[in-house]
Every structure is written in structure tokens, then in C-alpha cells.
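re the bet — no i am not wrong, look at it urself. input seq straight from the record:
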Amino acid sequence: MLSMFSCTDINKQLEEMIPADSRGVVRIDVKSVIEKGQLADEDGNVVFPQSLKDVMSMTLLRKIGIDTDANIYCFVPKNTFSYAALIAVNDADETKKAIEKQSGQKFQTIEKVDFLRNGAISFVIDDDILFIGKEAKEDADSKLALTAKGYLHKSNASIAEDASITECLHKENDVNAYINVSG
């Protein structure tokens, strides 16, 4: 379970899930954004100003238990999904409940991962990692789940193996991006 690892280990694991041939990757340092935006109370709980709450009410961010010590990675893979995100969560069951409530759909087990499809968006949860992907073209749930599982189980070469990508993503910024312009 990811919660047993340090945030550095979690971030490295997330990077190992992103395919090396991704067209682009964005790393968001959630902890830094929360600190600089003064979005935490004395106990470290995330609190949002009312104006931001109004915007956030349309999303799942405050409901899904994001692990705020871990980075969020968004990437553009080459095939099944147009874009995807990897997010470490603190409580997979709460995350599932929040997504089910928001979507009106139920998670099911496909390819040994928890899978939910809401329109063209796939949600896959495995070992406290939430994968969210927008499908490139309509596909069978089993193919979408299997593709997401491949990312989550690090079945291909990853960006973590490319020093030029990791150097770009590890700069001391709240948000870093890498774009593959070679095609």
C-alpha cells in the first residue's frame, strides 16, 4: 500500500507508471501549492477560501482524499487515452464512494482493478493510486481497464528511466512540464 512509503517513494512510483513515450507530462507539487496558497490550517488540514470553494464544488478534488504529500502527474500517452492523470489517494474506498456519488455509476472489478466509466472518462483505482483517463476513441471497458492497469503496474519503459525528463520535472517549481516535440 502506498501510504507506507515516503512522499519521495510515492512520487518515484508514480513516475515509473508513466510511459517513456508519452507526448507530455505535467508534475504538480500539491504540498507546495497548498503551502504557498496558505490553504492549510494549523493541523495541516486543507481548507479553501469561500471563493475557491465555489469553484471547487464542481470537482472531486476536496472529496476524494488526495494525498497532499504526493505530486499529481498528468500525461499524454500515445494510444488508448487522449490524456491521463495519476493521483495518490489516502483512502481508496472513500475515493470510490466520492466518484460513484458524483458520477451516478458504480465501480466494478475488471482485469483485477476497480474500474468505473463515466462517458469518455475512465476511473481506475489500484493500491491507493487513482488513474483518470479520457479515452481517445470509444473502446471496450476491458481494454480501457487493461491499459490503465498496464500503467499502474509499470509494465512498460517509463519516464523515470529518462534523466532529461526527470531533470525537467524535478525543478523547484510548483508545476513543471515536459513536452516531447520530436513526434
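see?? The beta strands are 24-28, 72-76, 81-88, 108-110, 113-118, 121-126, 129-135, 175-179. told u. also DSSP finds six helices and eight strands in the chain. so pay up
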